[in-house]
Amino acid sequence: MMTRSGLEDVYKLIRNERPGVIYVGGRTCTGKSTLAKTLNARHGYATIDLDVALEESVLVPFNVSDRERAFSEVFRERREHHWIAQFVSHVRAQITANQESKQLALIDGAVGNVDTLAEIIDGYHEIQFVFLHPIDLDEYIARLTARLLTVTPGSRGRMPVEFWNSLSQNDIEKFLITRQVGVSIASAIAEYSLFSRAESENRLALFEERFEHVISVDV
């Protein structure tokens, strides 16, 4: 069952019900980490960052240098089964450790494959799903632009591969030098925002079909 709520409703529900595990999902730049920090400050939820878990369980142990490929395989595709198994085991160990120490846990990450997410949470109780959906395109474009301006040549992974693929190599190199959001960059951001919102709607539908206790928050 899925319900649509505002963030204040989410805060109220969590304050009143204090679920043992919260999963905060959503597309890039929808505010997942900000929500995680707020719930940590208000209610003491310890954050399990899935980007960090990916690094600790896949990138380092398997000596994977292509972070974008690892992210795609583990969070979406499920073709590298040994990576998936290691990642799922790593995250479940963190959830279990939190529960054994009576610590509330919040999982922060953009897992798009419901089978992988189902494996992570299998057997745990009192799980609340919060899905942040980008409905306001102007706000979403502003968030994406702000994220883009933090990118460096060594940290392009902070923006999705779909965004970079929509640009020419010349446009990318020019931006990394000038830090100016010109016409081509602005157009790519706007195009990606539409793509991401459509993908978010599809992912939300899959979540509603597969899981209980899903709250969708329009952002």
What does this entry look like structurally?
The chain is of the alpha/beta class and 219 residues long. It has 10 helices and 6 strands; from the N terminus they run βαβαβαααβαβααααβ. It has helices at 7-17, 32-43, 50-59, 67-77, 81-100, 114-121, 137-148, 161-165, 169-178, 183-210; strands at residues 2-5, 21-26, 46-49, 105-108, 127-133, 214-218. Strands 1-6-5-2-4-3 form a 6-stranded parallel β-sheet, sandwiched between helices. Helix 3 (50-59) crosses helix 4, helix 3 (50-59) packs across helix 5 and helix 7 packs across helix 10 (183-210). The longest helix is centred in the last third of the chain and has 28 residues, at 183-210.
Topology (SSEs and partners):
Elements lengths: L1 E4 L1 H11 L3 E6 L5 H12 L2 E4 H10 L7 H11 L3 H20 L4 E4 L5 H8 L5 E7 L3 H12 L12 H5 L3 H10 L4 H28 L3 E5 L1
Parallel strand pairs: 1-6, 2-4, 2-5, 3-4, 5-6
Mean pLDDT: 92
Range of strand content: 5-15%
Our count of helices gives 10
User: Which structural category do the helix and sheet elements fall into?
Assistant: alpha/beta
> Gyration radius, to the nearest Å?
18 Å
Termini separation: 20 Å
Q: Unreliable segments (pLDDT under 50, ≥5 consecutive)?
A: none
Task: Please summarize the sheet with the most strands.
Answer: 6 strands, parallel
Range of helix content: 55-70%
H/E order of the elements?
EHEHEHHHEHEHHHHE
Globally, the shape reads globular
What order do the strands of the largest sheet run in, or round the barrel if closed?
1-6-5-2-4-3
Q: How many β-strands, per DSSP?
A: 6
